[in-house]
Amino acid sequence: MITLDRDGALWRIVIGRAEKRGALTAEMVAQIASITEAAAAEAQVLVLTGTGDAFSAGADLAEAHSGLARDPVWERLSAAVAGFPGLSIAAINGTAAGGALGMVLACDLRVAVLGATFFYPVLRHGFVPPRSDPGRLVALVGPGRAKLILMGGARIDADEALRIGLIDRLVPREELDRAVAGLSEEALATRPDVLREVGRLCDRH
Asked: Please, what is the average pLDDT of the chain?
């Protein structure tokens, strides 16, 4: 359900299970975390994407209610993505919700297709989000809009997401791969130590 495509120093993690809109099981979350941790030693660009018309609907609800919503594996995944020493890009091919949105927030860049939607329905399901997600959301969109999403249950469409800074680029679906490739070019061409240092300096501010 999780596949890895490797092209030199570019690693692409693809969330499968399109028939369930990419709903994440505990095994899938752990798998993404493990691949991301391994990528830190070998890759310069890490791309996260989904299949079909959804990036991921978040946690599989049956597993979420059985304990996945409180599992520390989410923080492990988030820390692995945020700590990746190269350039991480979320290639958002559709809906990104719940814990999957948390994964998106941890990336360096977010590129979405027209028609993508974003929401994080923690209150509706009676869950508390992983501790790092609200802070990352606030850093991107500010405290008011973060509360609108987390506490007001707002669904953010792609145009609004671009306007408020939740995503960095918005492209037609057929141009997503090309856009990601374009953003990856310089990171793949430079030395790993330079890439790592530039990322570190950006993260200090």
From this structure: 97
Contact 104, 166 (CB under 8 A): no
- Model confidence at 205: pLDDT above 80: no
- Residue environment code for 173-196, b if the CB has 16+ CB neighbours within 10 A, otherwise e: eeebbebbbebbeebbeeeeeebb
H or E element that contains 33: helix 26-42
Distance CA 85, CA 40 (A): 6
- The domain that contains 191 carries what CATH number? 3.90.226.10
The pLDDT tens digits of the residues spanning 108-141 come to 999 999 999 999 999 998 999 999 999 999 999 9
Cβ–Cβ under 8 Å, residues 39 and 83: no
Total domain count for the chain?
A: 1
User: What is the total residue count of the chain?
Assistant: 205
**Residue 150, domain extent:** 2-203
Question: No. of H helices and E strands in the chain?
Answer: 10, 10
